[in-house]
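Example: Methylsterol monooxygenase 1.
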Amino acid sequence: MAVNASVAVFGSAALAVEYMDSLLPENPLQAPFKNAWNYMLDNYTKFQIATWGSLIVHEALYFLFSLPGFLFQFLPFMKKYKIQKDKPETFKGQWKCFKVLVFNHFCIQLPLICGTYYFTEYFNIPYGWQEMPRWYMILARCFGCAVIEDTWHYFLHRLLHHKKIYKYIHKVHHEFQCSGYDIPLNPLHLIPFYTGSRHHDFHHMNFIGNYASTFTWWDSIFGTDAQYNAYNEKMKSRKKME
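Written out as structure tokens, the predicted fold is:
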């Protein structure tokens, strides 16, 4: 009964979204995107698209979104948003971080990305434009992937902090003790269960707790955010006394 009710709810929600989508004006960028996509399919193999194409998109997006955080240190008006103001960035630390990133991206992630082609072939995932899911389905699937990633990240991250294996793998990550800035206008703050920079920064400051990457629920369920919550209450009390 409960399963049938859930299916009915999701079905009704899907119909409502489809109806709202039908009311939206046609996307003017759809035609150029379609032409670019078809050009890619006509000029590159599936293997090239799934591997090198995925790698290029991955690297471009990663460094594009990381660039503002790197530039903030050179902008005086951004210093007030730095979380751990007593731990400035150093060229030596950032150069080491860059070298670790390059190694991880090309020696670990690239082989995994190469497996994308065989994954899509095994599950017969289409590449054609006509089989492309609608925008709301893409958003739903991205959210689902984020939930899956956050789940395995939490438990694997917590395992990597075990005293018997911490120094062999995860210790190098904690050589970088501050995770950056908390920007007030960040739209992700609108998501009530999103971790955010302060959540992960406390993990680097405290070394234990706050193991999740994206959402806060696993830390809440297992109580690994207790010290973080106590710290926040302490900071609030201190501000009231000032």
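The helical segments are 2-23, 30-43, 46-71, 91-122, 135-160, 196-206, 217-222, 226-241.
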